[in-house]
């Protein structure tokens, strides 16, 4: 989420040194109007960038917790006119005013440091941080986070600005805050922001790669990765995909009150039409609480071994292999080659134990592993091993074991993947390992209802998308 780009981490101006305090006081009065929140660039600057100050009355704090970070700055001219109008009628509310300073966290900052920089006494800062620790670990602060410090400005009854509390948005749906209760007593509170869920349909035709097609269709990459992973048990992403193949997907997004997608997923449904067959996957949560992808017959897509043990999204035929044809499995070749950019992660095709990790003659840097049911797999020509990859290590299916390279006897970056059954080479595409789980009985009935539901929702949404495209008179794609 991109917000408040105009706010920078800065050394806050010490309240005592503010020379233009009277001007500021007048602005405070103006801004006591509940409906108007104004962000006010201060006239002081330092080497780190502008200091930004927000003022408002206490009774608008709640509103600001949700809105202030996205509020656009108000033009100074507009404020001037407004100021003249309302300055008098707000005189009485002056004692309720608070002053806000927004601090953007920089690398190496601690909350304690930020509070001390803001002029708090050490005991006061410590009390505030301790209170916050009840609900949030301040070490989780990251560069770019924003901390909003609130002060009761100095006035008739106060000699200097009094620290009133702080708040920050620590997740897309969560604010935490600390409020002064008493002299040195602070209380922590949290607030959950409502996110709404929307379903989105995407579809496309593959021209160069699935990755390109999915990006063009507006499918966010975390969801594409979910789709590829779920299909990697059944599809050889190097050889099975062809220009003209089509995909469809239905997924969820969580959007904030500004309509911005802040969380992606999960993928609910995907269909890939390739080589005359259509593969469908459906996300389903069984009554015992397990979520997984199943095919239309209610079989888990998971199998003992993956057919594409690499990020299939970026594979495109011919990549980087001009002199070396992309070989399929044959008596001569006895493995599958996946041409992909150097550094592409390689995954363990199944749960197993590493039996070799390191150089192996013409294979270059290679990992071999043993799986249940007498299968072994081999991954060759890596640029490097994943850290901790040594003989005897247990690995999980999908775990990254190394990265694509061109070590050994190889003419371009690619993964050479072999599967052996009891010592004999087998074609990975012919490995018909049993599905991990097959739904039956009541579970299967529920699953079939869920399938009907998700397909009708996809059809309704995809229909809308198509109608929308027609309305906009989209250019016709040549075939
Ligand atoms: Zn090969």
UniProtKB/TrEMBL annotation:
Q: Name one GO molecular function term.
A: metalloendopeptidase activity
- Transmembrane segments annotated in the record for this chain: 20-40
Q: Which SUPFAM superfamilies match?
A: Duplicated hybrid motif
One cellular-component annotation, GO:
cell envelope
Q: Which cofactor does it need?
A: Zn(2+)
What are the Csd3-like second N-terminal domain coordinates in residue numbering? 199-318
M23ase beta-sheet core domain mapped to chain residues: 331-428
Q: Which UniProt keywords apply?
A: Hydrolase, Membrane, Metal-binding, Metalloprotease, Protease, Transmembrane, Transmembrane helix, Zinc
Q: Which domain of life is it from?
A: Bacteria
The GO biological-process annotations, alphabetized, read as: proteolysis
What CDD domains does its record include?
M23_peptidase
The question of whether Ubl conjugation is a record keyword is answered with no
| Any Pfam family | Peptidase_M23
What subcellular compartments does it reside in? Cell envelope
User: Which protein is depicted?
Assistant: Murein DD-endopeptidase MepM and murein hydrolase activator NlpD, contain LysM domain
Source organism phylogeny: Bacteria, Pseudomonadati, Thermodesulfobacteriota, Desulfovibrionia, Desulfovibrionales
């Amino acid at each position: 989420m991109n917000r408040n780009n105009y706010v920078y981490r800065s050394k806050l101006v010490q309240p005592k040194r503010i020379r233009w305090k009277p001007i500021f006081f007048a602005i405070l009065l103006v801004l006591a109007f509940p409906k108007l929140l104004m962000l006010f660039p201060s006239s002081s600057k330092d080497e780190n960038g502008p200091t930004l100050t927000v003022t408002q009355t206490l009774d608008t704090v709640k509103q600001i917790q949700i809105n202030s970070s996205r509020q656009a700055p108000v033009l100074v001219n507009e404020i001037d006119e407004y100021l003249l109008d309302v300055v008098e009628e707000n005189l009485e509310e002056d004692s309720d005013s608070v002053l806000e300073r927004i601090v953007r966290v920089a690398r190496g900052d601690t909350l304690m440091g930020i509070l001390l920089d803001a002029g708090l006494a050490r005991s006061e800062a410590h009390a505030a941080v301790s209170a916050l620790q009840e609900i949030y670990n301040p070490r989780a602060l990251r560069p770019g986070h924003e901390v909003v410090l609130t002060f009761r400005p100095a006035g008739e009854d106060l000699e200097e600005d009094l620290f009133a509390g702080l708040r920050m948005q620590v997740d897309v749906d969560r604010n935490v805050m600390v409020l002064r209760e008493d002299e040195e007593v602070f209380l922590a509170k949290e607030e959950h922001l409502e996110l709404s869920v929307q379903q989105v349909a995407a579809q496309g035709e593959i021209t160069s790669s699935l990755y390109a097609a999915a990006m063009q269709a507006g499918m966010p990459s975390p969801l594409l990765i979910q789709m590829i992973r779920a299909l990697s048990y059944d599809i050889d992403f190097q050889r099975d995909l062809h220009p003209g193949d089509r995909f469809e997907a239905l997924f969820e997004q969580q959007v904030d009150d500004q309509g911005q997608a802040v969380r992606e997923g999960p993928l609910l449904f995907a269909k890939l039409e390739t080589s005359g067959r259509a593969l469908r996957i459906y996300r389903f949560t069984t009554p015992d609480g397990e979520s997984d992808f199943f095919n239309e017959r209610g079989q888990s897509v998971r199998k003992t071994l993956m057919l594409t043990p690499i990020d299939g999204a970026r594979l495109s035929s011919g990549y980087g292999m001009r002199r070396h044809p992309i070989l399929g499995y044959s008596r001569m070749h006895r493995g599958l080659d996946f041409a992909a950019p150097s550094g592409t992660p390689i995954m363990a095709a199944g749960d197993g134990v590493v039996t070799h990790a390191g150089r192996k003659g013409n294979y270059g840097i290679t990992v071999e592993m043993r799986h249940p049911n007498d299968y072994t797999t081999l991954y060759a020509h890596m640029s490097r091993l994943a850290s901790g990859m040594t003989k005897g290590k247990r690995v999980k299916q999908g775990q990254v074991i190394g990265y694509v390279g061109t070590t050994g006897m190889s003419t371009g970056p690619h993964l050479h993947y072999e599967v052996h059954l009891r010592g004999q080479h087998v074609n990975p595409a012919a490995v018909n390992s049993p599905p991990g789980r097959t739904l039956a009985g009541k579970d299967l009935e529920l699953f079939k209802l869920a399938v009907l539901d998700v397909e009708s929702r996809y059809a309704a949404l995809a229909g809308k998308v198509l109608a929308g495209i027609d309305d906009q008179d989209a250019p016709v794609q040549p075939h």
